[in-house]
Amino acid sequence: MKNPIQRKSVKLWLEALRSGKYKQGRGSLKEGNKYCCLGVACDLYNKTHKVKVDFVNYTSDDQQPNTGLPPVVMKWLGLNCPEGRLENNHYLSTENDNGASFNKIADIIESNPKGLFVE
To answer: How far lies 85's CA from each of 52, 59, 68, 102, 117, in Å?
Structure first.
């Protein structure tokens, strides 16, 4: 994470995940008033940019829909993959959908695991 804008965006994301202001959901970026950890990132992007993104699910391989980020949000955060790929083929989206709390997910992001961010 060398780009200062990306660092600022990730800091905003971590703060939002830990804030308690978002209800956690599973299986999609946003459903009703519940968000996946990646949906929180989309909401933040929309709050800080003039051009808004839809809460549409993207995948890195264009197969079945997944809880992946739109490319512009992925780039804004400096992530390598729409689903937030971690080491050993784990993903932030899977952590979220398997019940990890937003606080736990924020800790994972903050640990800067190899492969999560563009070098």
So the answer is: 24, 11, 10, 16, 9
